[in-house]
Automatic annotation (TrEMBL):
InterPro entries: 6-blade_b-propeller_TolB-like (IPR011042). The keyword Membrane applies. The chain crosses the membrane at residues 7-30. Keywords: Membrane, Transmembrane, Transmembrane helix. This is Dipeptidyl peptidase IV.
Length: 346
């Protein structure tokens, strides 16, 4: 009997210790009222800069980076890039024999794509460079074999008239035009190789590229249609009138204006994958196409230049600004007023 009791005692000891351990964990470590020292991590986006900078009288091609950290403009044959946090300016100069054909900020980076035109005797061609504003670095676009990207032009009168970018796939389309002739369209892929993109025989209007599908959507101004490369049929709205391609947002929703004489009466929002989400948004009055701005996150803003007021279409919220509106970016408006670029935050 004594032997049996000893066995039972030694058997119970580890069981008791285990139960006590569970009780301690439950009542101390897992107690709802246990107090821990924690540090809050602020994941909010950096506050937008308050833009206020002087520009020369001859400044043109004024643009702003997606987050408002930089403003750019052309003057005296160079691109000037101003850091809006401290108004420090950098100059992007060109090589001898080169002239600016076009430039555009990437939709989600503080990086500029620059198209430079060279006229070398009887030949003309384009070269492309990227400029990283944060690092103040300019790099020639070249492929994996270190061969510089060039696009040959039929003559020196051709220039880049439009650029469309897909940030998800790093595919860029470049429209090259000359007065009175058919435009040419080129695709620069992620490996920085280029090829000419064929499209139906028509007068090519505005071009945009889907962010996720990297498919080009364009205006067919000959037949009054909105089309996509690879589509057999146009992108239909079911309405008569003139169709204007306004933009494509970051989720690949296509924004088409409908009206006449460059004035928009209603806006169609087309989702090619989810047609049930398509929308028709009437405007309170016909509005010049140039006064409609659509951001990457799909917000639609209508500018009333006579009142210096921008209205967000979905909420009716009005934002006043000074001078002449130049552009709308993620956090606000930039406008030109008395020799200055001024930012107005939403």
């Amino acid at each position: 009997m004594r032997g049996l009791k000893k066995v039972l005692v030694w058997t119970m000891i580890p069981i008791v210790l285990e139960v006590v351990g569970f009780l301690l964990v439950d009542n101390f470590y897992l107690n709802d009222q246990t107090t821990f020292n924690t540090k809050k991590i602020d994941s909010a986006k950096k506050a937008a800069n308050k833009i206020n900078l002087k520009i020369p009288d001859d400044a043109k091609n004024i643009a702003v980076s997606y987050n408002g950290n930089y403003v750019s403009y052309c003057s005296d044959g160079v691109i000037n890039v101003v850091d809006t946090s401290n108004n420090k300016k950098k100059e992007i100069k060109f090589e001898d024999g080169a002239e600016l054909s076009s430039y555009k900020w990437w939709p989600n980076e503080n990086i500029i794509l620059i198209a430079e035109k060279y006229n070398d005797g009887d030949s003309s061609y384009l070269k492309f460079q990227s400029y990283n504003a944060k690092k103040d670095e300019k790099n020639v676009l070249s492929n994996e074999k270190n061969k510089e990207l060039k696009i040959s032009l039929l003559d020196s009168k051709y220039n880049v008239s439009d650029i469309a970018m897909s940030t998800a796939s790093n595919v860029t389309y470049v429209k090259v035009s000359k007065e009175g002739v058919r435009s040419r369209l080129y695709c620069i892929n992620v490996m920085t190789n280029t090829e000419e993109t064929r499209y139906p025989n028509c007068k090519l209007g505005k071009i945009f590229v889907e962010n996720k599908e990297d498919r080009l959507i364009y205006e067919d101004n000959t037949n009054n249609r909105i089309r996509g490369i690879g589509f057999k049929s146009p992108i239909a709205t079911g309405e008569n009138g003139i169709h204007y391609l306004l933009n494509i947002d970051g989720e690949d929703r296509i924004y088409i204006g409908n009206g006449e004489n460059e004035k928009i009466k209603k806006i169609f929002v087309i989702n090619l994958k989810k047609t049930s989400e398509n929308q028709k948004l009437p405007l309170s009055q016909p509005t010049d196409k140039k006064n409609i701005y659509i951001t990457r996150d799909g917000k639609i803003y209508v500018n009333d230049s006579s009142k210096n007021v921008v209205t967000e279409l979905s909420t009716g919220k009005e934002i006043s600004y000074k001078g002449t509106l130049v552009e709308i970016y993620r956090s606000g408006i930039i406008s030109k007023d008395n020799g200055k670029i001024i930012g107005t935050l939403f």
